[in-house]
Amino acid sequence: MRVSHLVGKTLRETPRDATLTSHIFLLRGAYVRQVASGIYSLLPIARRITAKIERIIREEMDRIGGQEILMPVVMPRELWEESGRYYSIGDEMVRFKDRSDNDLLLGMTHEEPAVQIVRSEVESYKQLPVMVYQIQTKFRDEPRARGGLIRVREFTMKDAYSFHTSQEDLEEYYSKVHEAYVRIFKRAGLRRVVDVSADTGIMGGGVSHEFMLVTPAGEDTLLLCPHCGYRANKEVAYTNLPEEPEEPKPLEKVATPEQKTIEEVASFLGVPHSKTAKAVFFVHSDKGLVFVLIRGDLEVNETKLRKVLGPGELRPAHDEEIEEAGAVPGYASPVGLDTSKFTLVVDRSVTVVNNLVTGANEEGYHLVGFNVERDLGEVEPADVASVRQGDPCPLCGQPLNMERGIEIGNIFQLGTKYSEPMGCTYLDNDGKKKPMIMGCYGIGVGRLLASVIEESHDDYGPIWPISIAPWQVQICAIDQKKEGVGDTAARLHRELEAAGIEVLWDDRNEKAGVQFADADLRGIPIRLVVSKKTLKNGGVEFSLRGSKDREIWPIDEVLPKVRQTIEKLEAELLP
Question: What is the pTM of this model?
Answer without folding.
Answer: 0.89
